[in-house]
Amino acid sequence: LYDNLYPSRIVVGDRTEAGEKFAHILRDCSLQPDTPIILTNPTEAESIKLFANTYLALRVAFFNELDSFATTFELDSSQIIEGVSTDPRIGNHYNNPSFGYGGYCLPKDAKQLLANYQNVPQDLISAIVQSNSTRKDFIANDILSKNPSVVGVYRLTMKSGSDNFRNSSIQGVMERIKAKGVKIIVYEPECQEKEFLDAPVIRDMEQFKQQADIILANRITPDIEDVLAKVYTRDIKGSDL
Are residues 89 and 169 located together in one domain of the fold? Predict the structure, then answer.
């Protein structure tokens, strides 16, 4: 809803008068009357979406691989990211390490763009797709190296205030850990099922905290600040950005 009310731009794949009218209807429905309108051919409009989301996936993957490097060599990710992001050409945004990119659009759009490159020379687009799997492998192996008996997954959602956990990156980490025979429990208020990916869903927060040896959290929230010694996260900002 927020993106519809406050769009960064409105792209319509129709350069006719009808397309222009439709674009203005969309802008009139938003709360930003000065939102730029871009009229393109249909395939160019699709390309804009695929390339934009794949670039965002690239940015997530870049800072995740920076964090993997820092973790491996026992460096402080936050110091490196601050120094890198102070460069105005890079910017201090969308640079908080995570367990990987996920959600509705980024994974599928990056893969769709890669499929469209079938007859086009490329290396980068393949690397963006592969990097997400590599990051999940790294996170899972790092957790397994601590020899936990029970891993608690705190929230399946991608970001705070969301009820969407479709294709969330934490699921890939769960599957890798579970494949090694480690018990997993889940705390997710938005999940109405008794199990998720064959892992029991615990609805009592205190019970969840007590049972888990390690609590896997993509983002830190006040709910788990009292058990930070148990928490495994790569979150350095306490935010989704």
Answer: no
pLDDT tens for 189-211 read 888 899 998 999 999 999 999 99
| Residue pointed to by tokens 């709910």 | 223
Buried b (16+ CB within 10 A) or exposed e, 11-22: bbbbeeeebeeb
pLDDT digits (tens, 9 = 90+) for 68-91: 999 999 999 999 999 999 999 999
Neighbours of 84 (CB within 10 A): 15
**102, 166, 164: which is closest to 132 by C-alpha?**
102
What is the pTM (predicted TM-score) of this model? Answer: 0.91
Do 116 and 158 lie in a common domain? Answer: no
Q: b or e along 40-57 (b: 16 or more beta carbons within 10 Å of the residue's beta carbon)?
A: beeeebbeeebeebbebb
Q: Which of 105, 114, 125, 140 is catalytic?
A: 105
Q: Find, among 200, 137, 217, the residue nearest to 173 by Cα.
A: 137
Instruction: Based on the residue annotation, tell me whether 105 is a catalytic residue of this protein.
Output: yes
Would you say residue 99 lies in a domain? yes
Residue 6 belongs to some domain of the structure: yes
